[in-house]
Amino acid sequence: MSYRDKLQYLLVKKLNISNALAKEIILSNMVLVNTENVCDNIVILETDTVFYNNEIIQIGKKLIYVALYKPRGIECTLNEKVDQNLSTIINFNEKLFPVGRLDKESEGLLILTNDGNYFNKIINPASEVEKEYIVTVNKPIKEEFITEMSSGVEILGQITLPCKLEKIDDFIFKIILVQGLNRQIRRMCFKLNYMVISLKRVRIGNVNLANLQAGEYRTINLEI
Predict the structure, then answer these.
(1) pTM value?
(2) Active site residue: 103, 115, 169, 170, which one?
(3) 12-32: per-residue pLDDT in tens?
(4) How many alpha carbons lie under 13 Å from residue 170 in its C-beta half-sphere?
């Protein structure tokens, strides 16, 4: 069941009844969502526990968020058929999935969760969730490079969205994106005749890498 499903649909599905009977049950004030009686056809979240006639018809799912420092050389997948996948460095009983990607040669912050809503929010450019990276390149950074990267670079048949760029030293810069095209930073740099030597993501939204070391992780609390 997705987070967009209504209470009436849940009753029909779980109790194997008609829409008319489900509507009647709702209006009769016989349904409890978490700790409150409900008499409207409200949207039911996957975190909601729903009772009917003192029986649980949906157990609310506990949402989990994990901040992981993905080391360089680890593939951003939990598919155990892939060599050096994430399951080799992190193991949870609950089924989690990574939010967004970091290519194998990149490192840094990766969030894993079982919350599909959070996943959709982070990967959708319209949400304008910032992702911050520290990048080292192979030659001195010129002002023209900063200007062109910030304004947008044509890759994969489109112009990247404007982004924030700050030069840290001759070979290192900080970049903040709100989109996540495939190998975007590496492609942008290559288009401007620069090669990425190292790339580390240090922030996603309000979640920072903080003092995590490569391969370490911590659970986090997020308000979505």
Answers:
(1) 0.79
(2) 103
(3) 999 999 999 999 999 988 899
(4) 3
